[in-house]
Design goal:
The protein has eight helices and seven strands. With 272 residues, the protein is α/β, with parallel strands linked by helices. The protein has a single domain, classed as Ureohydrolase domain (Arginase, Chain A, 3-Layer(aba) Sandwich). A seven-stranded parallel beta sheet has the order 2-1-3-7-6-4-5, with helices on both faces. Helix 5 links the parallel strand 4 and strand 5. The two termini are 35 Å apart.
């Protein structure tokens, strides 16, 4: 069969997993949220944004989609309505990937924020940097211990340090767990964190004027410049992977998906 020189099935060239620097994996799970479940379309819309977006990062003079070998292995076959079984599939998949390439950097595209828990449990980083409008530290949500609003509480129970950035919505009983709001304090805290680090970005960390298509928008959020500056600080340490969660729109070419794509590109430029 002749080479199909003008076709492509993903947003970038697909390298074999054992040769790749970076692995993309979609997790379109959104079964624990009361909001309309459009988070399941995150992997589709973010990939489409990556396909159409200029991948050169001027601030870094890097082009991560050219400078890094990317392996996009598709999406987890999630189980609708069942976090436990979906969590098992996430853990098994991450384990299998690491068996094939122990040095690979993970980029997970959600999906709701509950997906972060099984990823962290499998990767076992020393620190999680959580960029989020919400603490997600509830002990249960609608009687459910495992949800988009409880995952960070479960991570903390596993004695993993969690550094929070941008959190501005929490209940009175969570007051002691709120994030630093002062940028210098956040930078100091990240620089003193133990590696390896896992980075999780809920798109509602951005102000809704930048990212309107999220499940639970909160006003007075961060700008892309502020978030990207702190991501650069995170990557001064060893980072084993990251996720982008809570893009909540089934519409292609939506603003939040494009900002998520830009966040991924900026993050990966630190690996080039």
């Amino acid at each position: 069969m002749n080479d199909m020189l003008y076709t492509r099935s993903s947003f970038t060239a697909r390298y074999p997993l054992d040769e790749a620097d970076v692995c993309f994996l979609g997790i379109p799970f959104d079964s624990t949220a009361l909001a309309e479940g459009n988070q399941r379309f995150g992997p589709v819309t973010v990939r489409q944004a990556l396909k159409t977006k200029v991948s050169y990062v001027p601030d870094k003079k890097k082009n991560p989609l050219k400078d890094l070998k990317i392996s996009d292995i598709g999406d987890i076959e999630w189980v609708p309505g069942c976090f436990d079984k979906t969590s098992e599939r996430i853990k098994d998949t991450v384990c299998d990937i690491l068996d094939e390439n122990s040095d690979i950097f993970f980029v997970f595209i959600g999906g709701e924020h509950s997906i972060t828990l099984p990823i962290v449990q499998e990767l076992e980083p020393s620190t999680v940097v959580q960029m989020d409008a919400h603490l997600d530290m509830a002990k249960d949500y609608q009687g459910n211990k495992f949800s988009h609003n409880t995952w960070a509480s479960n991570v903390s129970e596993d004695d993993t340090e969690v550094i929070r950035v941008g959190c501005r919505s929490y209940t009175e009983d969570q007051e002691t767990g709120k994030s630093y709001m002062d940028e210098d304090g956040v930078k100091k805290d990240i620089r003193e964190a133990k590696g390896p680090i896992y980075l999780t970005v809920d798109m509602d960390v951005f102000d809704p004027s930048f990212a309107p298509d999220v499940g639970f928008p909160e006003e007075d959020g961060m700008s892309p410049r502020e978030v990207f500056s702190l991501i650069d600080v995170v990557f001064e340490k060893e980072v084993v992977g990251m996720d982008l969660c809570e893009v909540a729109s089934k519409r292609l070419n939506n603003r939040t998906a494009h900002l998520a794509a830009k966040t991924i590109l900026h993050s990966l430029s630190n690996l080039c």
